[in-house]
Automatic annotation (TrEMBL):
Record's protein name: ZFY21 protein
Keywords assigned by UniProt, alphabetized: Metal-binding, Zinc, Zinc-finger
GO molecular function: zinc ion binding
InterPro entries recorded: FYVE-type_Zinc_Finger, ZFYVE21_C, ZFYVE21_C_sf, Znf_FYVE, Znf_FYVE-rel, Znf_FYVE_PHD, Znf_RING/FYVE/PHD
Gene from which the chain derives: Zfyve21
Residues annotated as domain FYVE-type: 42-97
One Pfam family of this chain: FYVE
């Protein structure tokens, strides 16, 4: 077990919004997670905050689990998975929030799983002319990029400043390209200087090419969605 995963234990907690499976230690929280929002107090929402319908004994009020605002059943009827808040089951969300959560499903079901499964690359540190074959993967708590070979590195996701995907096959008139590597820049804790790593896909096996390309595509998605998915 790597040091960054030594505190991965989780616990089941119940909140007004539903059951959540959360890390026991706050320091182990995923950088892609969201905090539960405070609910708008019932006394402050006499009407639906979407359609302005007045609440009464028949028209009940419901809180969206993602934004915490107050709606009637018609405007807050969808139950959608919300993994960013660690909910065990789909939870009630307003139409706007449900749409956002549905768009995030692919990110959680595909990109994050690909990154956690890992891929093999030749990794070059800084300006060195030597590279090392390493298995690269996202840690189980999604906080670190873990590199294992003869050496071992754990790079905190929130310390990564830039991700540049390297491709080949580009032509001036357009055309297909494929990812063959990436250049990563990050800050080492306690230092303000940037450290650079270059990742190059191994050409040893054709199956590894496909796996590496998928992993790089997922990493590109994470870097592009940084402001959306990461707590800054």
């Amino acid at each position: 077990m790597s040091g960054c995963e030594a505190r991965d234990a989780k616990k089941l907690v119940r909140s007004p919004s539903g059951l959540r499976m959360v890390p026991e230690h706050r320091s182990a929280r995923s950088p892609f997670g969201l905090d539960e929002p405070p609910w708008v107090p019932d006394k402050e929402c006499p009407r639906c905050m979407q359609c302005d319908t007045k609440f009464d004994f028949i028209t009940r009020k419901h809180h969206c689990r993602r934004c915490g605002k107050c709606f009637c059943d018609k405007c807050c009827s969808k139950k959608v998975p919300l993994p960013r808040m660690c909910f065990v089951d789909p939870v009630r969300q307003c139409a706007e929030c449900a749409l956002i959560s549905q768009k995030e499903t692919e990110f959680y079901d595909k990109q994050l799983k690909v990154l956690m499964n890992g891929a093999t690359f030749f990794v070059t540190l800084g300006t060195s002319d030597k590279s090392e074959l390493m298995v690269c993967r996202l840690s189980n708590n999604q906080r670190y990029l873990v590199l294992d070979g003869d050496s071992h590195y754990e790079i905190e996701i929130l310390q990564i400043s830039t991700v540049q995907i390297l491709t080949e096959g580009f032509t001036p008139g357009g055309g297909n390209t494929r990812a063959i590597g990436m250049i990563l820049q990050y800050k080492v804790p306690g230092s303000e200087e940037l450290t650079q790593m270059k990742f190059t896909a191994s050409e040893d096996f054709s199956c590894n090419k496909k796996l590496s390309a998928s992993w790089l595509a997922a990493m590109h998605k994470v870097s592009k969605g940084g402001k959306t998915y990461r707590r800054l």
